[in-house]
Amino acid sequence: QVQLVESGGGLAQPGGSLRLSCVVSGFSKDYYVIGWFRQAPGKEREGLSCISTSNDYTYYEDSVKGRFTMSRDNAKNTVYLQMNNLKPEDARVYYCATDLRSNPGKRDDDYVVMVCPFKFFFGTWGQGTQVTVSS
Question: What is the three-class DSSP state of 86?
Answer without folding.
Answer: coil
